[in-house]
Amino acid sequence: MSGKVCLKLEGVSKSFLAADHSGLTHALSNIDLEVNDGEYISIVGPSGCGKSTILRLVAGLIVPTTGTLSLNGATIRGTDPDRGMVFQKPTLFPWLTVEQNVAFSLRMQKKLRGREGDVARLIDMAGLREFRTAYPYQLSGGMAQRVALIRTMINEPRVFLLDEPLGALDAFTRMNMQDELLKLWGQNRHIMMMVTHDVDEALYMGTRVLVMAPRPGRVRADLKVDMEYPRSRTSRRFLDYRAHVMELLDLGRSDDEC
Amino acid sequence: MMKNAAPVPSGQDGMTRQQLLELESAPKTRRQILLGRLILVLPLVTGGAALAEYWYLPNYKSFTATLCWPVFLGVLLALYGIGLIVSLSRREARDKLRSHAPFYAFLFVLLMVYDILTLKTNTLLSPYFAYPNLILNAFLSDAGYLAVSTKSSMILLMTGYLWGVGLGLVTGIACGYSRHVDYWIAPFLKLLGAIPSVTWIPISMILMKSLFHASVFVIALGVWFSVTIACITGIQGIDKADFEAARTLGASERQLIFHIAIPSAVPNIFQGMTQGMSTACMALITAEMIGSDAGLGWYITWQRSWAQYAKMYAAIILLCVIFIGINFLMDTIRRHVLRWKETEVDA
Question: Domains in chain A and their CATH numbers?
Answer without folding.
Answer: 1-82+159-167+190-258 (3.40.50.300)
